Predict the structure of Secreted protein.
Amino acid sequence: MRRQLTPTVLTAAAVAGVVTFSLVASAPAGNAAARPSSAYAVSAEGQVPIAKTPYAESLDGKRQTTSALELPKNPLLSVRAGTATAGNDSASVELFDIVVGPDILSQVQIPPELKQQCASLPKTGADDLPLPDIALPDLGLPLPKLSTKDLPVKNLPDLCNLLLNPPSSLLAIDSLNVYCSGDSGGVDLGAVTLLGQTLKLPSTKQGASLPSNPLAAISVNSQGKRSDGSFTITGLTINLGGGTEVINLASATCAKPAAKPKPTPKPTQPDVQAPPVDHVPAAPVPTPVKTHQAVTG
């Protein structure tokens, strides 16, 4: 069943000192953007769609920040906190405690014969024992049909440990921070574990991918520039079930800033020179006036 996930806002005291959980608008930062800069923490497409949450957008170049706490309980994804910020030609995302497929293996019923094998493992030489091919039940996620041979283990002792002491998630990420400014950006990634096994993610500036496996294909630090001049960087893209479900985590888009308007030149007045101080203008020539006088005597 599809469920639309929306953020549930709790009290800020629950996570004091981690992120600010409010909508904030600050003073303009330079000239307005030609198109909106934006950022979001989580989105997903597929059997369990998730809208961009939380999402921030700067329409006029002013800095905008929005945050969200835990998502409602669902079979796909949980997040403790996320903050998205967008401004003039800049954007960033902070994301904490991301869990994909919470408690995915806790529902697996181990066959009695496998339990017996696990209980009777010798102390030495068990690493050479082959993996049994046992079908796993539907785990409630958009994944193909899996067997024990699809799990990230190398031998029977590893499999016994994974099934008898199941990890809390399919994939877990401590923290993920993404930022961009202009046409460049970066990713800060905390510890990442797949079914309890720590992944060694490549340290790269752009476009790294982990080898695909039946559980998840992961792309790190995907970057791209659009024809309008905007630049987008996405921290992690998780592909489940060969495209059945695609999750994007921490994506920031920096829009190309608008050109600063050129100042309009003021009209100039012609210079009028004042006459020299020692120069006295010539007096006008007097005009004779004709008149008649009365005669007396």
